[in-house]
Amino acid sequence: MNSLDRMKELVEVLNRAGKSYYSEGTEIMSNFEYDRLYDELLRLEKETGCVMSDSPTVNVGYEVLSELPKERHESPMLSLDKTKEPEALVSWLGSQKGLLSWKLDGLTIVLTYDGGKLVKAVTRGNGEVGEIITQNAKVFKNLPVSIPYTGKLVIRGEAIITYSDFEKINEKIPEIDAKYKNPRNLCSGSVRQLNNKITAERNVRFFAFSLVSAENVDFENSRKKQFEWLAGQGFGVVEYREVDAENLIDTIEWFEKRIAKNDFPSDGLVILYDDIAYGESLGRTAKFPRNSMAFKWTDETAETTLRKIEWSASRTGLINPIAVFDTVELEGTLVSRASVHNISIMEGLKLGIGDRITVFKANMIIPQIADNLTGSGNVSIPEICPVCGGSTQLRKVNDVKSLYCTNPECQAKHVKRFAHFVSRDAMNIEGLSEATLEKFIQKGLLKDFTDLYHLDKYKDIISGMEGFGEKSCDNLLRAVETSRKTTMPKLIYSLGISGIGLSNAKMIVKAIGENPDMLAGADRASLEAVYGVGEVLADAFVSYFENEKNKNLFYRLTDELEFETETETAEGARLDGKTFVVTGSLKHFENRNQLKDLIESLGGKVTGSVTGKTSYLINNDSTSASSKNKTAVKLGIPIITEEEFLVIAGKEDLM
Description:
The chain is of the alpha+beta class and 655 residues long. The protein folds into six domains: 3-48, Helix Hairpins (Orthogonal Bundle), CATH 1.10.287; 70-295, DNA ligase/mRNA capping enzyme (D-amino Acid Aminotransferase, Chain A, domain 1, 2-Layer Sandwich); 302-405, CATH 2.40.50.140; 411-483, 5' to 3' exonuclease, C-terminal subdomain (DNA polymerase, domain 1); 488-563, DNA polymerase, domain 1 (Orthogonal Bundle), CATH 1.10.150.20; 570-654, Rossmann fold (3-Layer(aba) Sandwich). It has 25 helices and 24 strands. The longest helix is centred in the N-terminal third of the chain and has 21 residues, at 3-23. It is globular and about 80 Å long.
């Protein structure tokens, strides 16, 4: 193949990968592979002097595909030129002073404030046109919607989701395995939601990295002054360090040592001139601004031998290939496994058992395969699911080929139901994370909820599993036994009946009674009469027990459990008829659910919005400018602190 043909091939492959990554939130190749092919294309373009019109080396981005409204940026949002050589950064900086910061791996957003209010938020999109996501930005976890400065302000920054939040959200969203592989993709999907309630639940954070304009503010020609001013306005600002030619390499090493401890995704560093006028005087190329540059660490790679491909079934039916190879040391830790993500990537790497492969840690954290040196391609795609033995099916969505189990009753698809059953507000069995439940299901230890109460039969198997030992196994079995003593509302809630929360379950049991036969045989009319239930929930409850399989499971669970009656005491009705809304951070309770449980145990009700029927708004910051506070003031609803609530509830001992 001659150079021009190879260039055309690279342009097509890279554009397809870029479109999947930026516009569709999916990956058909690793970042390592993308960078390698991009660098090859760049080298060929320099050698031949030919650049294709659709080459990713000259195009800024990809077309935006969604139902969100679009808007053209006032000035193009360019990519950054990059290097992997620290000395190249020293040469670039020269005698100037600069700021070195994290290159956050999320979604770039442009924010506009006017009159002290957030008036517009637009995604980077293709660099020329972005998507308007103003309502979504207003629910970012750390973003001020009102600021002291009242002039027109335009800033750019990165919306991200932390690794810890990603893991928590990963456990709560059933379809996560099918849609999102990392915090960046989850963030992209969250920021571009059509329903900002979902965005709010994803804990998206925003960190400013560039001040575009601010009317009538003197920043003394300093980017650092801009960052300090933004922080003073209430914005999170990307972490940065001042650098010059003398300390730049040492500062790069300082950042590198912090990567393993970071809770946020980063794919390198960014350096920019502190001198604003000097940086802007340098202008720009067709694709890159000249006032800043990206630095990417040279990934430490190791050569090893691929020993097998494990097939991991998930709760969505997706079956992911996992590469298992001879153990190597990378970035100071031992690594022997790496997710291959999907069939497209596996086939692109031409993986085969016994192949010599190179592996690395993406962003110095996540193990991935960099290259296949032998490319035998002898891995066969399984025709049956490794968990249930059901038929598998290859599906291609947005150019990504993935493998799925077609059996709707596959146990792997029920991990979410088991996770709900063992959660704190349900049966409260400690030590059973989703990852552990998935392992138990894959090994055939769990088929329905009652199997949890007979795990002692598999003590030898569990003790020998990775992450377990005899002590941790004993702790788990004790937690199972402890959970046998519960209440009927908690059992009803644990069943996962659509829409039935713990408070609904308490109301139903209080109205219908604790007799299993009466609950399983409750009719729609009786349930609709229960306060807080209504037609939809009544139908869901009755429909659940009309299924004989569900009813049988319920009865078998009642045989396993010992029920305590939630007795009404004099104080049990202390908050009867009162409705509360809770907002802001808490001091005396671990979370809002704990406070909600206390209110409901005393006969009160908790809702999400302040209305004319609200009795009290609980907010430790009564002076905040939150919408709930404003509504409460407007309606004359008392705003009380936790301490004031505890006095009303007669629970001063909890202070």
